[in-house]
Amino acid sequence: MLVRIAAAGSSPLSMLAPASPRRQDVQMDIARTEAGSEESPPVASLTARALALLGDHWTLYILQRVFLGERRYQDIHDSINASDSILSNRLKTLTEGGLLAKTPYKDGRVRYEYRLTTTGKATWRIFVAAHSWENSWLDPIDGLRPVLIHSQCGHLAHPQLICGKCDLPVTARDTSVTRSGATLSYASALPRRHRQNRTLALDGSDPYAFRTETMEILGDRWNTALASAAHIGIRRFSDFERFLGIPPTVLSARLSRFVELNILRVQELAGSNRRSDYRLTDKGRDLAAILIQIVRWADENLRTGEPASIEISHDACGRKLLPEYRCTHCEQRLRRREARFELRECRSS
CA 134, CA 335: separation in Å to the nearest integer? Predict the structure, then answer.
């Protein structure tokens, strides 16, 4: 991706995810405090809000189950094997975030079920993008696995990312990112979620669930933010640290894990006295399709009047990217009501 900065004088580190204050920002804050003025709380950018809401493995797992038709609390609970406190917390977050609607039904007494709202349904492109990335980069495994069927032609969809305005294929190398100077919130300032050992949700018993590696990357808001930072040009450890506002020991562990997963590679810098930076591998670069869909979802569903913190344009047509998917068999666009996941027996050989 080519990265452009829209606002004159904005910092190259002022992008889409959590960052720590720059020295001059701290000095300005001190000056305002000495003058007796109150500092307003930071305003979350669209993309930062999306990462904070979706970057959680339990949240993604719950959304998957509701997409599959499980709406009642006990049905979801039995599927994902989460504790009552975690499930209640995530359902509350998804309801307050506008992705689920809590509706009453009678079963002897009044109970509630959770239905996808228009905002919740719009996340389907993110799930398609993640499924496509898994199929492209993770080793196949034996057994039942979900495949995407295009009901219009009846064949496997093998979705291809395209620009919805010119119908041409899109990859990370075909896009340019423009960052605004909007004020961003910090992930470290967001409330901590009640967590539980994720192996309970990723024990392999649910064939519809994301693979462990996918959930490790997307089901953690720090990892998703780290991947986002890499895609918009951040490479050096110190820049990641400032950008994410993350303790260096935690950052070091995250970067090392991304190298182990072959998402990033270490690049020694010539003539820099053993200094190095982190570059995306082809596998890591292909995560762009997921991040592009998160940006679209945030722009269309979370906006409350604030400017977008990031805009992605398609170099081939020069317009703002509208990421869509096309069925590679019939070459028609995929629409949510015309695409479904089915379980089919898969062989690794």
Answer: 21
